[in-house]
Amino acid sequence: MPYMSPLHGEVISDKGILGPSYLSRARRETVNFQAALVAGRDAGTVKDESIWVEIGAHPICSKMIKAALGSHIHALPSLRRNEDAWKVLAKSLSSLYLAGLDIQWKEYHRDFKHALRYSNDFCLTKGDEKSAAISAALVSANSMLSTSSVQRVLEQQLGDEKSTLVIESNLHHPSLSGVIQGHKVNGASLCPSSLYADIALTVADYLLQAAKTDTKGIGMDVSDMTVNKPLIATGNGPQLVRASASADWNARRVLIDFYSVTGDGNKTANHANCTVDFENTDGWLKEWRRNAYLIRSRIDSLEQGVEQGQVKRGLAYKLFGALVDYGQCYQGMQEVTLDSAQLDALCKYQNLLASGRNCFSPVAFWKIHVTRRRSSFT
User: Which Pfam families has this protein been placed in (predicted)?
Assistant: First the structure.
């Protein structure tokens, strides 16, 4: 294993250098911490996505690492002064776990088997009075990528021409279960296509940012969404779903597959797939400007001339209730105006989801114009 030597300011990989003489010199001579870090970076021993774990009573070297290699570096403490040791350790371990490392949780809990309890999350926590705080730390710990819909990264390979990413989420996680429970078809909690789209956008954006390219003027278009088998939430324990993404930077496209797995990672069902294309937003705006006056005039006409076709929120969702039972935070339609003769409809929609760790980014207010030919948002 290569060793970044603060004594020599270089990476040591040859045998026989580290020994009593080296340790004696290291205690007496000048330490060049920055040179060792830079040498490790230049040699490829450490990379921007590397995660550092500082072993000690309080994080001191972590600040020096970030100062030398950049503030984006992930550095985790093992202990922290004046903080509960279990809480600090659990948070760091959960960050490593969410980053895709295989943590041997059985070893971590080996001396506390009598106090284990299941906390409806990926990990087990110690069943004492501080378990709730530790569980919260496990849920909210930062990682390379962690949102309500994309909870942890399992694998990633970043390249100049191709990049791949595999993520995993638990449908029964508190931050995600509400999305599933808020969309019921015939009493079954069904994963909506909008959740697939949100995962796709989150994953594609992560890969785009990791590619370290200029993202100005780049928009993401989710298309070719195909749902082969419905994803239905069952039981109360962990129900794991994964998304596998493959980015082709020459084609400016990401292909994404969604599938269920067992706790051991064995695939049980393919559910859906879609494509995310990276496109120039200027082109979108030009297309919108060409058609905006037609759409806006039709919206005005619908609002002024079809009074009898107006359906308020309560009745609209009562009609929907024959097919789909939407949760309160997904009942965003405020009013629907129908023109049956022209097969046109206008919907005033307000996003009711609060900001924070929800799956969807909040949008203030939309008017949606639907015809037999197109849908438009203003």
Answer: PKS_DH_N
